[in-house]
Amino acid sequence: MPGAELTVFGRRQVALPRGDDQVVSTGLADRLKERQQALRRLRLRRVTTAAIVVLVVALATWALLFSPLLGLQPQRISVAGSDGSVSDKQVRDVLAPYTGDSLLRLDTGRLSTQVSDKLVRVRQAQVTRSWPRGLRVQLTMRVPVATVQGADGYQVLDNEAVVLERVPEAPSGLVTIMPDKTDGASGSQTISAKQVAAVTQVVGSLTPQTLAQVASGSATEAGQVTLTMSNGASVVWGDTQDNELKARVLATLMTTSASIYDVSSPHRPTTRSADGEPAASATTPQAS
To answer: Is 85 exposed, middle or buried, given 0-12, 13-18 or 19+ CB atoms closer than 10 A?
Structure first.
C-alpha cells in the first residue's frame, strides 16, 4: 500500500507510491539539464569576455602603434644647439621619412645616428620623444679649427680632421695647415691625411685664448707637430700624446715672451728667446 512502512533487517523504509520513481528520475534529469545549461552559459560568457579583451587589446595596439593618434608630425620637431650652420629644416628633412609613424615605434637611437651621419656639421645628435606627436633634437656641432688648401680651394676642418665645407678662400681666424718644411729632401707641397689629423688634434685641444694666437701648423709624417704663432713665435709640440696637458702648459708659458715654446716634454717645458737664450721661466701646471 502507498505509504506503508516495511521493516528490513531492523530498518524502517518507506515504500514510495507507485510511479514516484518516475518523478524522482524526471527531477534528476531536469537538474542535470539545468546544470549543463548553466555550464554552457558560463563557457559562453568566458568566450565572449575573452573576445572582448582581445578586441580591446587589438584596438589599443592599433591606436597606439599604427593610427595617427601618436603619429609624428614634422612641424612638431624642435631643434636646439645649432650654431647656424645647420637649419631646423635640414634636421626635419632627415627625419621626414618617419612622418606619420607612431612615436612608440620610433628608435630614437637610430634617428640620432642618422641626423649626425647625414649632416656633416653635426658631431652628435640626441633625439627624444615629445608627446604626443613630436620630437626634440639636441645638436652638438663640429667646430672649425683649421683649413688646408686642396685642389678645389680650401677645406675647413674640425679637430677630428672632418671636412666641414670647401670654400674658395681661406677663412680668417682658423689655423692654416702648411706642408712640413723640415723635409727638405722632397720639398713636396702635399699634406697627407695623417699630417692633417695630427695638426687638427693639437689645435683642437688648445684653449680659446691660445688658439686665437695660432697662425699655422704643420706636422711631419712621423706626427711631430709645430705651431707658428701670429707674432712669429714657434711652438714645438711633439707628438699628439698628452694634448690636454700640453695645452695647459703652453697657456702658462705664453704669459712670458719668447721666440720658441717647447712643450714636447710637458713635464719639462722650455722657452727660448730669439738669441737662443732661455726665456724667463713660468710656473707650469702639474699633470693631474
So the answer is: middle
What pairs with residue 153 in β-bridges? 150
CA–CA separation, 20 vs 84, rounded Å?
101
At 5, the pLDDT band (50, 70, 90 cuts) reads very low
- CB-CB contact of 128 with 135 (8 Å): yes
Taking the model in full, what pTM does it have?
Answer: 0.72
Find the mean pLDDT for residues 3-23. 49
As a whole number of angstroms, the distance between CA 258 and CA 273 comes to 5
User: Which parts of 216-268 fold into alpha helices (H)?
Assistant: 243-253
Q: 116-120, 182-186, 267-271 — which is least confidently predicted?
A: 182-186
Q: Quote the strand ranges of 66-196, DSSP E.
A: 77-80, 122-130, 134-141, 146-150, 153-157, 163-167, 175-177
Hey, what's the cell of 223? Answer: 706626427
Q: Which residues are CB-neighbours of 208 under 8 A, at least 6 positions away?
A: none
First to last CA, the chain: 118
Percent of the chain with pLDDT over 70: 82
CA distances from 180 to 15, 21, 216, 224 (A): 127, 120, 11, 10
For 287, the 3-state DSSP assignment is: coil
Length reported for the chain? 288
Phi-psi bin for 126: left (phi > 0), alpha (psi -120 to 50), beta? beta
Rounded CA-CA distance 30/25 in Å is 9
